[in-house]
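Researcher: Next entry in the queue.
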Amino acid sequence: MAETSTAIPDLGRAVAHAAAGHWDRTRQIGQVTLAFDDRHRRRIRLETDEGASVLLDLPRAVALSDGDGLELEDGSGWVRVAAAPEPVMMVRATSPHHLLRLAWHIGNRHLPAQISEAEILLRPDHVIADMLRGLGATVTEAEQPFQPEGGAYDHGHGHAHGHDHGHDHDHSHSHSHHHD
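Model: Structure for this entry, 180 residues:
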């Protein structure tokens, strides 16, 4: 009995990127679902949710966001980028001012964070969770798409480098901090 081959369809190369809302969704022919760390890419072979293969081949690395489009080289259509659910910590505060204070402490530690009016999403980290609870935050774990803010100097590239800086900031110089 001969074996049958189930070759993965090849969509070719995706050579252009367009932000969410700036590409023709009526020409969508597939979708790739990627976690945050997998969405900063220039060149990589991807498999669509439908099982087709596509080579991402962009001129430069791009931080892909949920809803972005990747245009195929032959013009046959677009592949939508979807943010995959992943483990996150949901940080909630008692007031808008409290949320701002929590955001300051998170930013002071250079952590990738997704910020909304109601909460801040972070990657799970028990040390950070304990610190935030000590500051009065409610911290719960969940699984949902994670799209942190881009850095001030990275022009929308919110990619974390996946390492701990391992340093504390020296506050012994001549200024003070007021905490209420």
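Model: The helical segments are 96-108, 126-134.
Researcher: Noted, moving on.
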